[in-house]
Amino acid sequence: MFFNNKLKEEVYMILLPGFKEKRSQSK
């Protein structure tokens, strides 16, 4: 469980900025 949680955190740190960039480009 702990490992899975840490993995999710890393994925969010990588994906979140990407989502924000896409939304900025769409505007």
Automatic annotation (TrEMBL):
<protein>
    <submittedName>
        <fullName>Uncharacterized protein</fullName>
    </submittedName>
</protein>
